[in-house]
Amino acid sequence: MRVQFVLQEIWIGLRRNMTMTISLVITVAIAMALFGTGLLLREQVRASKSFWYDKIEVSIFLCNKTSSNEACQKQDITEQQRQTLKGQLEKMPQVSNVEYETKQQAYARFKDNFSGAPGFVESTKEGDIPDSFRVKLKNPEEYKAVAQAMLGQPGVDTVINEQEILKRFFRILNGLQVAALTIALIQVVAAVMLVGNTVRLSAFNRRRETGIMRLVGASNTYIQMPFILEGAIAGLIGGMFASILLIFSKKLLVDRLAGDVQLVSQLGWSTVVAVIVLSICFGVLLCAVASFLTLRRYLKI
Fold it and tell me: What is the mean pLDDT of residues 42-60?
């Protein structure tokens, strides 16, 4: 009987404040969707970093006739210079492995990496990309020691650290994550305010019923329970809508990012499900706690 009464009171409260309830559900859905998107981007960055940082190489591009470096004097590196550089690299304690990549191999890899942009590939000819040493480091953070040792050596054009390229790209992803979480925080504040107003209005409309319940000896917990559950149910519905938005976010943002940008690894559905569950729980808890605090602070029931 008590459970039936509580459920009846919840339905009455939601029905009387239908407009505010709908507004609350929409606000919670947007807030939780943005919160979940921020978490997905964080997991995407973390997974991509752990995947790619172990594969980072230092590319030492060698002189050729098209080099803009004045030290190259528009000439190809000699065989003796190439062997000398390779020997120096193999003796360095920071170096794990050294591979020589010819112009033909570099051009083939370039065509494979940019196969989705045929116009870009057609504008590049074999020989435009110089040969290079691709150096695998024992610790990617020790790039500077290798770069300083190689720059200025005869036959060396430029030295490029792939880690710096990755860091700039991941900074962009981190910026998107911060933006999503910041907007989500604003939406959470709006949701809390809406919860407070909805609960206060609902309690005011039912002040006669709650007064009678007080007179017959009902406890504060029993009186407050319908109002708290109203907020929790609104948060649950908003969280469920947010889960749908997160699925679209995974399909349209995260998967497309992983497909278009080869620096990003694929994010699994298990992570998405975990983020969805966390977002729903957070939405329910947020609305329930906001309802409870509103009742304690503003209402005398």
Answer: 71
pLDDT in the model for residue 49: 66
- pLDDT for 301 beyond 60: no
In terms of pLDDT, which residue wins out, 215 or 247? 247
Q: Which residues of 15-35 are buried (b: 16+ CB within 10 A; e: fewer)?
A: eebeebbebbbbbbbbbbbbb
What are the pLDDT digits (tens) for 96-125? Answer: 888 888 888 878 877 776 665 555 556 677
Task: Please count the other Cβ atoms lying within 10 Å of the Cβ belonging to residue 58.
Answer: 25
**Residue 92: how many CB atoms within 10 A of its CB?**
17
Interhelix angle 18-52/220-249, nearest 10 degrees: 50
Question: Order of strands across the sheet with 132-137?
Answer: 95-101, 132-137, 57-62, 156-161
Q: Kindly report whether the global pTM for this prediction surpasses the value 0.85.
A: no
Cα 5 to the chain's mean position, in Å?
44
**Is the pLDDT at 1 greater than 50, yes or no?**
no
- Closest to 226 (Cα-Cα) out of 187, 250, 198: 198
* Residues 34/250, Cβ–Cβ less than 8 Å: no
In this structure, are residues 121 and 109 in contact, taking their beta carbons and an 8 Å threshold?
A: no
CA 174 to the chain's CA centroid: 7
SS3 241: helix
